[in-house]
Design goal:
single chain, about 180 residues, alpha+beta, Immunoglobulin-like, 2 domains, 4-stranded antiparallel β-sheet, 8 strands, copper, Cu-Rt/internalin_Ig-like, membrane
Amino acid sequence: MDARRYRWPAAIAAAAVASMLSSTPASAHTALLGSVPAAGATVAPPTAVTLVFDESLDPALVQVSLLDERSDRCQAGRPRVRGGTVTQAVGPGLPAGAYRIDYRVVSDDGHVVHSAIPFTVAASAHGTAAPSRSCGRPTARRESHAAAGLPGVLGAAAVVVVGGLAWGTARRVRRR
């Protein structure tokens, strides 16, 4: 038998692994449809922030942080998830200043989607700025990025195993 014939399974497996390791997330993942406040908006101090996605989300796989200019957390409690809508309560009396909503969700297909939405809280209606204090809660932002890439790593491992089995089978066939 021609040994070149059995090189194709190994070559295909290697190409699949390279593709999986170098690919970027596909555009079919969960998409943010909008937020309140909207990106770049200037608003009165909100009591909650809301994110609307194009698919239902698993509440256990949703993380939302409202952060001030010093990256102190300003949210109250955990986010509420209903379908594709995520609502995060805000701590009382946000002072005027710049804020951002950091979010991390997991798509139905297992891919992690994350981004940040900046907005500004305006000065009070009396024309004076609210005290420029921070939210006062230390940031605990040490999230594991290893879990974010787990589906891709498992897929790549599966391709390597299948490729290895194909290669091993081809070697056994050649020896006969």
